[in-house]
Structure prediction request, 267 residues.
Amino acid sequence: MVENVTRDIIATYQEVLNGKIKRFPDGTWSDDKTGVYFYKRCLRFAVECIYGWDKEMALENITAKWFGKVKLATGFGKYFEKSPYLAVKETFPEWNFHPWEMKTSPNGCWDDETIKKAVRWVFNDKLKWGRHEIINNISKDFNEYGFKKMYAAFHQGAYGELIDRDSSGLYELLSYCFEEYDFKIWEFKKLPTWTESDMKESFKWLIEERLSWDYEQTLDNLKYTHFKESGLGNILANYFNSSPYKAMRFTYPDKDWSKLRHRAALE
Prediction:
């Protein structure tokens, strides 16, 4: 009986699609379970038989406008509040996907925890990237698995106020999502913009944490090679003419660095 009913609704749907009838008969999209069942059968038919889409193709291409294109707009609004995510989720429960995997994420999808889960899903589950791969490959053009939607949501959310640089805010986003990695801005190879705050933080990190030097030790020992070996050689070259003296004067302006300048001149 169910198979006959299903064949009937699909046959009716095909007649709507080819123009033989203008619309579904009255009562097709009823308020009971039968109406929802009919609708999901038609939606599955459209995805699998008309378009031949698999899960990835469907999630990439189904939007609210698409339902009108395949003559399923009425039930879409009635049963699923015009949400592509809800419609696809209910019709294809075997797909077991996340809301952010769709081309258009559902309204209210993004909060701080969802952003964190989505970003970690991109790097941990899909790309299998660890700390090393992230700092060496992430750039402002990166958009694997819909990543740009995630950092756009981050910009618009409560954490967006943390972004005080001219770059995309990728550093702040990744630091928020991967607290255990303790990222430093200077470790990222493809993030171009540095603020004065970034540079001071990086030089203080070099002296106080990596080298664990006090003022006197820094005066007596600091060289360009220390910056280079710590991934700060380009910053020193581009902004401070490769001069440790200028970098220290910039970072610790209350101290006298004349000895460092004289020592560098003799080397």
About this structure: The two ends are 93 Å apart (CA to CA). The chain has 16 helices and no strands. Confidence is low (pLDDT under 50) at residues 1-5.
